[in-house]
């Protein structure tokens, strides 16, 4: 590729043809401010550069108008100035215009402190809002149990549309209308819950303002903890073990499991359990299900079912492929009913008083917990006074807020241990947090169960990392088991279309995670969640796996105990009652 | 002239794809100020803000629609100042009445 030489603020710089002014400036050591631009939306090859905010404008010698640097390619010999009075005035006035149509209640805004609009106004020294006039006034959409939309804070940057349409191919959002009256809204102007939205929250991760945020359920948890009649248990998802620390100044990907347990105990939970425990349980059920399908000519390839955004995606867009989905509930929904049956029995607690809280990286988990069929414990005891299997789901961001509210000095907490019965988790469960992890964990167990031999090497490097679609194969007693892994729903769609077309018949198992990078990139994770952060968190996940004394699900002593004492065998009667589920065809197709 | 600007800004608002801030919000804010010319309630501060808007929107909009809106207002402020002043004073002797034919072209 040819090179182009240009001058930026007096610095000569040479870059490949096609480079944007913004990137060339970066190379020249000049920082141009941006707001709407997003270099990678979840995955490296998805870019958002619609040029909406006009904050990144610069002056090009010989051109009368300013140009936006985020989406204008360089030209040979360009002479660019990035902070002339004309440029600075334009940037400020563009921001003032934006603010003049924005409900500015920063102190009570969910994004206060992590808002990109706030930050850019500080960076560019915006000190007044000269233009005044009519303001948009739309109702807040809180129809979804996962996502809250406040269109009055929307700056129409359209990042959410790129996330939803290009990354996830769900296409639930649209830019509707013209001029001042235009709005970014769920398709057709419906409440979000009535659209094909899968609640993945990738839109919330990229939204620079509080126009799309997670639903805040922290108050329900404060109340439950304070209620002396309630025995409040909490579970922590694998992906939260390496992400919560970011908010408290620890390096991205730091393993904060022990500190999180300590923080949860200080918040006042009665028992702190690990979703890693139920991830091991999931592997037992899902692994045996796979072996069963292979032996009995069941529907193959089998799809993983841990990611609730992915489940809704199949229900909406590929209802014909529902038989491929494993009937196993996700680890979150396995721990809930077990807490209200096995644990309740063992501890002699009335299951009516048990309140289950989850700490999840995911906004779709709120939706999952609210599904009507997720009340297995109530059915098991035939007692309508037993509440939902999982009562409240908090995202990583909500837990971070609770820890702050309680004034806990998180970074300096001592490590503490999970409570017994559902507190032990293996390395196999830990890697559930990263794309490829469920698959790798399943292979570690399936191999040993099928062959009766010890796996020579536990690490399945082929299914790790940020490549969209990955594959591997393992020989088990003469059968070559072929597996595929995809993350992001766009990548999932590619596989689903092939399956619908009758391809991929010789594959056995497919892992899909709705979010790029897997749960570490979930829609409820700390903001920002960039591709670089996703990579560092993945590294943290595998480091923790290496550190753990037990790295295979079937070797977890607490899992062995529950089968011995309660469930008897994988896919047995109680397993079916409590740990398996069914799916609902939705959508129009 | 003030009426023509008003028509033109109406046209811009109705046809703005709403992708960029200067065109989407800026032309609305300009129009809100221009309307004040008609009843003479416009202040000097607003008039100078209108000029800043015109300059900025003309220079930094994403496409020619927004750029044109900014430039048209800037042009009007520069070259038809006496007409606008007359409007503000409520004595717009030289104003060409808005032509319905012209309006229909602009509103299409
Ligand atoms: S979205 Fe940002 S700028 Fe707007 S009110 Fe919230 S914190 Fe303030
Ligand atoms: S939650 Fe996911 S599916 Fe729903 S609107 Fe946002 S990006 Fe789209
Ligand atoms: S909702 Fe957020 S991401 Fe979407 S256009 Fe509005 S401000 Fe941008
Ligand atoms: S960052 Fe370039 S137009 Fe918004």
| Global outline of chain A | globular
Spatial separation of the terminal alpha carbons of chain B: 19 Å
Give, in spatial order, the strands making up the sheet with the most strands of chain A. 2-1-5-3-4
Quote the average pLDDT of chain A: 97
Q: Cα-atom Rg of chain B, whole angstroms?
A: 13 Å
Instruction: Please estimate the helix content of chain B.
Output: over 70%
Number of helices of chain A: 19
Task: Give the count of helical stretches of chain B.
Answer: 6
Distance between the termini of chain A: 45 Å
Number of strands of chain A: 17
β-sheet strand percentage of chain A: 5-15%
Average residue-wise pLDDT of chain B: 85
Q: DSSP strand (E) fraction of chain B?
A: under 5%
Rg of chain A, Å, rounded: 25 Å
Domain 4Fe-4S ferredoxin-type (chain A): 145-175, 188-217
InterPro entries (chain A): 2Fe-2S_ferredoxin-like_sf (IPR036010), 2Fe-2S_ferredoxin-type (IPR001041), 4Fe4S_Fe-S-bd (IPR017896), 4Fe4S_Fe_S_CS (IPR017900), Cytosolic_Fe-S_CAF (IPR050340), Fe_hydrogenase (IPR009016), Fe_hydrogenase_lsu_C (IPR004108), Fe_hydrogenase_ssu (IPR003149)
Domain 4Fe-4S His(Cys)3-ligated-type (chain A): 86-125
GO molecular function, one term (chain A): iron ion binding
Give descriptors for this structure.
heterodimer; A: 589 residues; alpha/beta; four-stranded parallel beta sheet; 19 helices; 17 strands; 14% strand; B: 108 residues; binds iron/sulfur cluster; binds FE2/S2 (inorganic) cluster; 4 iron, 4 sulfur cluster binding (chain B)
């Amino acid at each position: 590729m040819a090179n182009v030489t240009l001058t930026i603020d007096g610095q000569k710089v040479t870059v490949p043809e096609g480079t944007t002014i913004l990137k060339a400036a970066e190379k020249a050591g000049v920082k141009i401010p941006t707001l709407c631009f997003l270099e990678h939306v979840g995955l490296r090859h998805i870019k958002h550069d619609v040029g909406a905010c006009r904050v990144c404008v610069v002056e090009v010698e010989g051109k009368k108008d300013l140009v936006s640097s985020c989406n204008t390619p360089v030209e040979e010999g360009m002479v660019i100035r990035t902070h002339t009075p004309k440029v600075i005035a334009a940037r400020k006035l563009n921001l003032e215009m934006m603010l003049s149509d924005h409900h500015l209640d920063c102190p009570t805004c969910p994004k206060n402190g992590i808002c990109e609009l706030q930050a850019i106004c500080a960076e560019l020294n915006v000190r007044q809002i000269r233009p005044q006039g009519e303001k948009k006034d739309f109702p807040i959409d809180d129809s979804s149990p996962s996502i809250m939309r406040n269109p009055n804070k929307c700056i129409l940057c359209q990042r959410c549309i790129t996330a939803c349409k290009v990354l996830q191919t769900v296409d639930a959002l649209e830019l509707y209308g013209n001029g001042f009256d235009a709005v970014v809204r769920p398709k057709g102007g419906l409440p979000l819950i009535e659209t094909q939205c899968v609640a993945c929250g990738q839109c919330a991760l990229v939204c620079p303002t509080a126009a799309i945020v997670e639903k805040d359920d922290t108050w329900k948890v404060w109340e439950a903890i304070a209620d002396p009649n309630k025995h409040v248990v909490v579970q922590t998802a694998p992906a939260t073990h390496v992400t919560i620390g970011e908010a408290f100044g620890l390096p991205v990907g730091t393993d904060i499991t022990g500190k999180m347990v300590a923080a949860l105990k200080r918040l006042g939970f009665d028992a702190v359990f690990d979703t890693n425990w139920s991830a091991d349980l999931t592997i037992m059920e899902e692994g045996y299900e796979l072996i069963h399908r292979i032996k009995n000519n069941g529907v193959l390839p089998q799809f993983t079912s841990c990611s609730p955004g992915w489940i809704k995606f199949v229900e909406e867009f590929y209802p014909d492929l529902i038989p491929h989905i494993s009937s196993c509930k996700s680890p979150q929904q396995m721990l809930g009913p077990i807490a209200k049956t096995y644990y309740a029995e063992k501890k002699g607690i009335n299951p009516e008083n048990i309140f289950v809280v989850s700490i999840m990286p995911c906004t779709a988990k709120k939706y999952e917990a609210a599904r009507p069929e997720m009340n297995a414990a109530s059915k098991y005891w035939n007692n309508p006074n037993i509440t939902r299997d999982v009562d409240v789901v908090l995202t990583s961001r909500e837990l971070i807020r609770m820890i702050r509210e309680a004034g806990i000095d998180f970074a300096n907490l001592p490590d503490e241990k999970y409570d017994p019965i559902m507190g032990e988790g293996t390395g196999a469960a830990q890697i559930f947090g990263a794309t490829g992890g469920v698959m790798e964990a399943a292979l570690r167990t399936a191999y040993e169960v099928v062959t009766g031999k010890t796996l020579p090497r536990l690490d399945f490097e082929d299914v790790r990392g940020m490549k969209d679609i990955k594959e591997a194969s393992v020989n088990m007693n003469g059968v070559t088991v072929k597996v595929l892994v995809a993350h992001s729903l766009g990548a999932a769609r590619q596989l689903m279309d092939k399956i619908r077309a009758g391809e991929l018949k010789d594959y056995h198992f497919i892992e899909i995670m709705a979010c790029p990078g897997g749960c570490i990139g979930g829609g409820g994770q700390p903001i920002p969640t960039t591709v670089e952060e996703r990579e560092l968190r993945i590294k943290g996940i595998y480091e923790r796996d290496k550190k753990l004394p037990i790295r295979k699900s079937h070797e977890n002593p607490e899992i062995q105990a529950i089968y011995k004492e309660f469930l008897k065998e994988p896919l047995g009667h109680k397993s079916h009652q409590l740990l398996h589920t069914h799916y609902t065809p939705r959508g129009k197709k | 002239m003030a009426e023509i600007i008003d028509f033109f800004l109406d046209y811009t608002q109705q046809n703005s794809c709403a992708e960029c801030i200067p065109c989407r919000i800026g032309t609305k804010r300009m129009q809100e100020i221009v309307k004040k010319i008609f009843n003479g309630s416009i202040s000097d501060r607003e008039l100078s803000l209108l000029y800043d808007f015109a300059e900025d929107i003309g220079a930094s909009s994403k496409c020619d629609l927004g750029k044109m809106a900014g430039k048209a207002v800037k042009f009007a402020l520069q070259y038809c100042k006496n007409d606008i002043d007359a409007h503000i004073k409520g004595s717009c002797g030289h104003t060409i009445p808005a032509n319905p034919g012209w309006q229909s072209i602009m509103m299409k």
